[in-house]
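ARCHIVE CARD
SHELF: 3
SLOT: left
DATA:
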Amino acid sequence: MEIRRATIEDLADIFTCNINAFKNYITLINRAPAPMMTDFSAELKNNHLFVACENDEVLGFALIQDTADDYMWLDVLAVQPEHQGKGIGRSLLDFTEQFILAKGKSECRLNTNVKFKRTLGIYLQYGFEIYDTPVVHGYERHYLKKNLK
């Protein structure tokens, strides 16, 4: 598996992966999860979008957004359901942390819906800590951060 910067040719696969990874959460929160609203074409132009691939198949992706502060946002991380549990998400998290450090930043931040207990558990096990639980655009979220230095 390789992780590389996404290209315009990857956008259809990223969109499909995103839908597949988040569609089962719709009934949990009674609406489409926030990542399902992402315009990946704009994100490709304006932020850092990476894909985890094997034999030209997009297995997962990470969208990283820069800030003017000493941290970057891991805005979306998704893995195709049939490839979950194989370490792809962990590889994308590791890659994200190294990318953030290479950009001279010291912290990774992200958020997840408060009802996504499994996702929250993964991030907490990976060393993230909750620092806020706001309601943003009608979504109740846990904001998490991890110091990388």
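SLOT: right
DATA:
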Amino acid sequence: MNPDRRGGFALIEMMISIFLFLVLLLIAADLLLESSRILHHSSRRATNPMPEFAAETLRQDLRGATGVHGSTGLWSPDPLRLGLASGETIVWSVDDFQRLVRSERPYLAAVDSWRWRQLSPRLVEVEVRFSAPGGETYLRHAASPRPRNARPTSEVIRLVVALRGAGGSGW
């Protein structure tokens, strides 16, 4: 053993260990950002699941419909009347209280605008604009020194759905 050689790390060993540490740090930061994005998305869904439920119910009604009554092909704020194979008619509209209703049952509150159009005999496009509560993430709100009222944000549900109630695979 050489008596002049001291114990410790060489410069190249130190640089490699710092490089590996930085790579691990970048991976951890990316995981932290992704988890906070998922938490924000999940907390928004948990506090107000109705927009997703209303959109899915409307999508199912459109898919099961055999036709649309009263269509002009242009955007219309009028009620959307969907005929089913059973002969029943389902009506989607916005009532006087700014609620999206399906045959008199409210599905979504704080609707700013509602419109629909028939793109082809078997294709319908629907757009619903509504105000959703809360613009802050859960963590930012929880970390604040005092509670704050979150400002509502404007959101849009936009669907383009093929009517499949009459059967067949064509549009």
